[in-house]
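BUG: 3D viewer hangs when loading the predicted structure for this chain

Environment: internal workstation, default settings.
Expected: structure renders.
Actual: progress bar stalls at 90%.

Input used:
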Amino acid sequence: MSASKETPSIAADAHSKSHLVLDFLYHDSRRVGSFLSQFESGHLTQFTRTHEATESATETASRELSLGSTHLLAGKHASNDSNLAGTRDGSQRVYDPLWTNARAFLDYLNEHDLIQRDLADATLGQFVLATGFLSIQDLVMFKDAWKLNAIQKMIKQGAGIGAPMGNLSAAQKASVKEQQNNMEALLELIQIMPHAVHATLLKAGESPAMVWCSLRDEYMSIPASEIQLMHGDFIPGEWSILGVLSAGPDMGVDVSNETGNTEPGVMQSVVGVMSKMLLPIIRISLGRPRLAFGVTPLLIFREVS
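Structure tokens produced before the viewer hung:
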């Protein structure tokens, strides 16, 4: 490799000395590493800087021995002895390249124009970047709350369930009874649903949009529970989510008849039919909002001056 060609990791290390500093809230190191490994120079697993200093001194001694006799023996013997003395002082520092790889990945995508910033024009599987107001919701904190009678009562009251039905017609009473049964089923079902950390970003400007994604705890630089205890719903500042576009907003398209009924298997069984009935409820209750873009998050960050 020529000396003028910087690797992404070297470029990021040099760029980190600039005035632009990024505050990373989320970094999916495994996915970022998998993408960096596909670039021509791979990605760092360890970054080491070594400094070494050496000091030496050499001492030389010469000796000469002469033997002589006028009749029997004559000769001369010479020898040199050298003594090398020195000291060596060295230091080594090992750095974690985790955040260097994050900057290298972001710089590489920017330099090669691989980021789509207009979500409306992005295609599924494309790198997208959205900037706006960020909300973090740690639903794991509330998993056991649904079992509490007080919480269930508040939810039912918010849905208008439990109001007197004396002046309602028979059809209206039947409708309210159905809503009550559905709410009871939902409250029982929600207790066994997967609870995760959700991030929602509201993108303002000429092309407003909502971006939704789920986050994994091991890739958070700050625990989601601490974020909510500090800020509540929205985190102050302007944040950016870099990720892979996974889904677009639901536009009311009914795809239930597009697959047909000729395909056997679990999807046509009682389990499959029940799954198709429950999955939309689960997604709407604890998943992506219908009008939001779905993104597989790679980095969440903001600029720090």
